[in-house]
Specification:
30% of the residues lie in helices and 27% in strands. It is α/β, with parallel strands linked by helices. The strands form 8 sheets. Strands 18-14-3-2-1-21-20-19 form an 8-stranded parallel sheet. Strands 4, 5, 9, 10, 13 and 17 form a 6-stranded antiparallel sheet that branches. 50% of the residues are buried.
């Protein structure tokens, strides 16, 4: 494997089985590009990956690419093998459930009718239309605002609740009796997802068999893309939402082991807290998110380790654990995988779409590779120039583009790069990126660690009790991501991580310094929204202040996760700190950072790296030939540059040039003196 490999994605469908098709496509890809690694996805193929015809094509592709000096990373995702799994284990199912509600009549009767749900994973159906279980059914009285339950009014009426799947419609009937007259009723119907059950006791044995089916092929790595449960998306007022949450018997067992209560009995509180007992509902959501996140991390860690065991320690494990591509609206990620990105093992930090640079840097810091990768597909615009912009911006901050993709059937939002001249334009740009590879040593030098409270960011009942649908945005999470974005745009590189990275020991204090990941240190800590943080995180914050770590932040802390009241303790702790209960804009944070004397290390077109070098890049309007003008003070030296595409520069303390490279140079001046330079 190259130290910094270049990567292109290639998605297959059944057309790859046509005689001669594979050979022709590999020949074209090899002839037109110099990509080191080809990622192949097979989730659009109708045959399971264990089918001998598919295995034969994988073996052929591996042979052909190896013969050309390229490498193959293969999608091996057990979720896509649902039809094989469910045939072997017909009752081993993961469900989606939703809240079906109505008000009962004077006899305590009511009915709810809706379209029979039928789940698909890509184009593969679950095979069962309609609901299969009712997880719970309760009557209760709501407060006037409809966001909480009046204490003492909840009654379990599951025994009086029935359902009928009648083709296109499903009807639920509640016959609770006159004692429940005019009560609100919430029923939780469940329908199966069309994925292999990742909570099953059979899951890892089943997955291991998939690995063994391919073990004879000398693959260069394995990829799983956007790991997690399926989130059933619909659109309301042009906004992506889901009405559903996830349930599985294995998940319920993990939940009971973790907190000692039955998940099915707690599901009502996913929507409604009891008035005056809100912390109990917050705790239920915290516990559920923790269990879901930890199981997804366990899954991905198993996949990572299994790939290394089967295909060798140098096997590349990809792709990105991220799913919902947005800089500020990521709440659906919580429902999919518990927002587990920072705990998932990868050989490089890997993201996709428009995930923010501070998160990309944090994932790179945790993984420890020399760069990070962001998969790009133009966000549905199908515009080639977006690939140029993405690639040059990535390089500016130590990242590289995972190009999606050579072919991508069945996804109209993706520009297929095999089109006339497209690969050639990308190839010309990548030749310059390789020059940056040769120069770059280390990652951008974030001097600030920004930590957010995972519980406050992900707890939907705490943020918006009584929700009828979960959206991609959530108030606290969105505020966190906006503050991080604005701090970054103000010129301060930082890594953004959740408080769970403190709890698991990845963020630590050593010899009076903040450390994260593979040993990077920081000068200051910003903590955002600590409500319901764990006791371990609270103790860490107290140690930080006691050791004099520059510290600021916002939000309240009344109770820890687990319920302990620390309101008075928190009020005492924050004395002497610049701390705000709410921040509507980043200005106050920037003012504090300036008081600390931290230097701006992110410029309009470049950044400072950990070895003291700087990398500037053009805007990427074109693949090459992008004008670049630099006039910045770097460690006290005024650097002026006019040229094209990129400037990579390392100065000695005396202001002499230690290393330099660029796309094209019209002039380079250090402290007003012209310097004669040649590209490395």
């Amino acid at each position: 494997m190259q130290p910094i490999p270049s990567i292109i994605y290639w998605k297959w469908d059944d057309s790859i089985l046509t005689p001669g098709a594979l050979e022709g496509k590999v020949h074209e890809l090899v002839r037109r590009t110099t990509f080191d690694i080809v990622f192949v996805g097979v989730h659009w193929m109708s045959l399971p990956i264990t089918d001998p015809r598919v295995i034969d094509k994988i073996a052929q592709a591996c042979h052909l690419l190896h013969r050309a000096g390229r490498k193959l990373v293969m999608e091996l995702d057990a979720r896509n093998q649902y039809s094989v799994f469910i045939q072997r284990y017909p009752d081993d199912v993961v469900y989606s459930f939703f809240f079906a509600e109505t008000t009962l009549d004077e006899n305590g009767w009511g009915s709810i009718e809706f379209d029979s749900p039928h789940a698909f994973h890509y184009f593969q159906p679950s095979g069962v239309k309609g609901i299969e279980r009712i997880l719970g059914s309760w009557t209760f009285t709501l407060t006037e605002d409809g966001k909480a339950i009046v204490p003492g009014t909840i009654a379990d009426v599951l025994a009086h609740t029935t359902y009928v799947n009648a083709g296109e419609k499903t009807r639920i009937t509640v016959q609770a009796g006159a004692a429940h007259a005019h009560k609100r009723v919430a029923v939780l119907p469940a329908f199966r997802q069309a994925i292999t059950n990742m909570f099953s006791s059979h899951f890892y044995h089943f997955y291991e068999e998939l690995f063994q089916k391919l073990a004879h092929i000398p693959l260069d790595g394995v990829q799983v893309d956007e790991w997690g449960v399926d989130v059933m998306i619909s659109a309301i007022d042009d906004t992506a939402v889901t009405l559903c949450q996830t349930y599985a018997d294995g998940l319920a067992q993990l939940y009971q082991t973790h907190c000692g209560t039955e998940l099915a009995q707690d599901l009502l509180y996913f929507k409604y807290p009891v008035k005056g007992q809100e912390q109990a509902a917050y705790q239920i959501v915290n516990d559920f998110n923790h269990v879901l996140r930890q199981k997804m991390v366990e899954n991905e860690t198993w996949i990572y380790n299994q790939a290394k065991r089967v295909f060798g320690p140098d096997a590349f494990v990809g792709a990105h654990p991220t799913w919902w591509g947005s800089p500020t609206k990521l709440h659906l990620e919580v429902l999919k995988n518990g927002w587990d990105w920072w705990e998932v093992p990868r050989d490089y930090g890997q993201t996709d779409e428009t995930v923010s640079v501070p998160i990309r840097l944090a994932l790179a810091r945790k993984a420890g590779g020399p760069v990070w990768y962001n998969m790009w597909y133009s966000m549905g615009t199908r515009r080639l120039d977006t690939y140029f912009q993405e690639t040059w911006r990535n390089a500016r901050y130590g990242g590289r583009t995972h190009y999606h993709g050579f072919e991508c059937p069945n996804e109209d939002v993706v520009l297929e790069l095999k089109g006339p001249g497209i690969l050639e334009e990308i190839e010309t740009m990548e030749q310059l990126i390789r020059r940056i590879n040769a120069f770059q040593r280390g990652l951008p030098d974030s001097r600030i660690l920004v930590v957010f409270g995972m519980e406050a960011a992900t707890n939907w009942v705490m943020n918006e009790p009584g929700l009828s649908a979960w959206r991609c945005s959530s108030p606290t999470q969105e505020r966190i991501l906006e503050l991080s974005r604005d701090l970054f745009e103000a010129g301060y590189l930082h890594d953004l991580v959740p408080s769970t990275e403190i709890a698991n020991g990845s963020v630590r204090l050593e010899k009076g310094k903040l450390h994260y990941g593979k040993g990077h240190t920081y000068d200051a800590l910003i903590f955002l929204f600590p409500e319901n943080i764990s006791a371990e995180v609270w103790e860490f914050l107290k140690r930080c202040k006691a050791q004099g770590i520059p510290l600021t932040g916002c939000g309240t802390l009344t109770r820890l996760n687990g319920g302990r009241n620390v309101q008075d303790e928190f009020a005492q702790w924050r004395e002497g700190l610049c701390w705000w209960e709410q921040l509507t804009e980043v200005g106050p944070l920037v003012a504090v950072v300036q008081q600390w004397g931290l230097a701006v290390n992110h410029f309009d077109s470049g950044a400072v790296f950990t070895d003291g070098s700087v990398i500037f890049t053009g805007a990427g309007v074109k693949n090459v030939g992008n004008p670049l003008e630099v006039k910045e003070r770097i460690f006290g030296r005024l650097v002026e540059f006019s040229g094209e595409d990129f400037l990579a520069l390392k100065l000695t303390p005396e202001g002499e040039i230690e290393r330099v490279d660029f796309g094209k140079c019209h002039f380079l001046r250090i402290d007003g003196k012209d310097v004669e330079v040649h590209a490395d």
